[in-house]
Amino acid sequence: MSESTQHVDVVIVGAGLSGVGAAYRLQTQVPGRTYAILESREAMGGTWDLFRYPGVRSDSDMYTLGYAFKPWRDGKSLADGASILQYIRDTADEFGIADRVQYSSKVVGADFDTAASRWTLTVEDPRTGDRRTMTCGFLYSCAGYYDYEQPHAPVFEGVDDFAGEVLHPQFWPEDADLAGKRVVVIGSGATAVTLVPSMLKGEGAAAHVTMLQRTPTWISAVPSTDKNAERLKKVLPPALAHKAVRAKNIAFSTAFYQFCRRRPETARKLLTGLATKVVGDAQTVADHFTPTYDPWDQRLCAIPSGDLFRAIKAGDASVVTDHVDRFVPEGIRLASGQVLEADVVVTATGLKLLAFGGIEPHVDGERVPLADQYVWNGAMITGVPNFAVCIGYTNASWTLRADLTHRLVCKVLGWMEERGHTAVAPQPDASLAPQPLLDLAAGYVQRSIDAFPRQGDKRPWQVRQNYVLDSVHTLRTDLDRTLAPVAARVPATDTTDAVPVGA
Q1: How do beta strands 483-485 and 424-426 pair?
Q2: What percent of the chain has pLDDT over 90?
Q3: Model-level pTM greater than 0.85?
Q4: What mean pLDDT do residues 71-78 have?
Q5: What are the Cα distances from residue 439, in Å, to 384, 427, 456?
Q6: Concatenated DSSP letters for 472-484?
Q7: Residues 6+ apart with CB under 8 A from 13
Q8: Which of 65, 122, 56 is nearest to 396 (CA)?
Q9: How far apart are CA 346 and CA 360, in angstroms?
Q10: Strands 301-304 and 344-347
Q11: Under DSSP, is residue 486 helix (H, G, I), strand (E, B) or coil?
Q12: Cα of 66 vs its chain's centroid, Å
């Protein structure tokens, strides 16, 4: 363990889309605060640097997934991963954020000392195992909520018997060879619907791709280019055009989500009708693209220009709805007895959730059980002083919620300075009915959500999926009412009165 210890006012965990956005808000809204960004990997970009599978792209429009303060100038509304990564890096360079990033720095320990009002972090270099300590006054996790190192990987019987190659999108090899091969993609989520048409394009294209799904997913074709946005960009200054398009897209996505939730049967007919129009076969849509759940019970997948549907219509791709029985040398045998022959199988079986980049907060040496805590304004957690997490939307662009949280954290820091508080934690002022933090029926959420803090049944303890309402209420929260100063814990042998963490 290194003897030298660096101290900063704020540590941001993660140098991805959220971490860079947090740094910008921090240095512009509470200038003078020292900060560092700790990134466990060796490069900036987070998700957009990690995932390298064919066709990786956003499934939210870039006018809302991008930063409010950095106009998106590319023509593609649903952008490819490389363009998004460059956008993040350009933003970090432009605003002097890149120099604040410490790479190969994974937070493996975090303990808050109530007497000193300070976090002590144990930071490990994943390459060497070397560890060092650093301290900070406030800890802000912008590392997302899924595991970068371990995807969800169900065990398939007989996989060792398969004569071909098995790939996982999260660890896509640079030398993957699909040219002229038969590929089966197991999965039906955002990754699978992106992979299937992408592996059929350009040099080295696969001969045929089959999407094997256990159950259908709601999928909607969307334009790859926003024509209205392009018109506005021609007549308005870049910043004003970006703001106008952003507002338009926020209004549309919010209205469409509310429409799906309030009129699910009508939404079902709309989505199946649009799919049938592109696929050209109502029976295919009924069999493979009409889920039993209602739209937005799980996240709706967007496909640019209907590329997946068009590949199926052209016969280059196909979709099979069945269960895997086992792998066999020539491919996959299904529960129905059918064998899907394959040279390559891609297991797009989903993500594994991991709370806040794996950080397990301790207070005065004691681990705080996250599952017993409540989340305040989608940001801070009861029982954990001077700690915030970035949780994006599940029904809209992640960045919309993330940016609200960045601004809220800055407001809390300014309020603490005004009040003379060195440590604060959220404190409910009424009883709360516990609810899951993420209100999605998706398997990847249900598998791990019990390990996360909970949300309550009233503001400011609800994590709402409504940017319009959040943008009105979040930054107007009465901090004096639901944030409480935290006094130092007193040893059991001392009878001096003290205020315990979270009291």
Answers
A1: antiparallel
A2: 70
A3: yes
A4: 86
A5: 23, 23, 12
A6: HHGGG--HHHHEE
A7: 19, 37, 38, 107, 139, 140, 141, 142, 143, 356, 357, 359
A8: 65
A9: 33
A10: unpaired
A11: coil
A12: 14
